[in-house]
Design a protein that fits this description.
With 88 residues, this protein is of the alpha+beta class. It contains 4 helices and 4 strands; from the N terminus they run βββααβαα. The N and C termini lie far apart (43 Å).
Length: 88
């Protein structure tokens, strides 16, 4: 399972991920085949998103890293601990 590992007690622990996609946090529903069904059945991707999503940007990669969306770029940098902001 992507992003999963076992902790010392044998329970699943998840890596934190930052999602950059125009679908945003709802992306996990789009990859689930029961998304359009009358009954939604959560799958393993739902669990990964619920426990491991550390941040989301609905901008595309070109906007985020191309210098056009500094807010989204700062969010990604904050997630990785690379923020360049300084307290005044």
């Amino acid at each position: 399972m992507w992003g999963a590992d076992l902790d010392r007690t044998g329970r699943l622990k998840f890596l934190s991920a930052f999602l950059i996609d125009p679908a945003g946090a709802e992306l996990y529903r789009l990859v689930n085949p029961t998304d359009k069904a009358s009954i939604y059945c959560p799958g393993p991707v739902d669990q990964i998103f619920a426990q491991g999503l550390g941040g989301v940007s609905k901008r595309n990669l070109a906007e985020t890293f191309g210098g056009r969306d500094l807010v989204s770029f700062d969010q990604v940098n904050d997630f990785f601990g690379l923020s360049q902001r300084r307290a005044w």
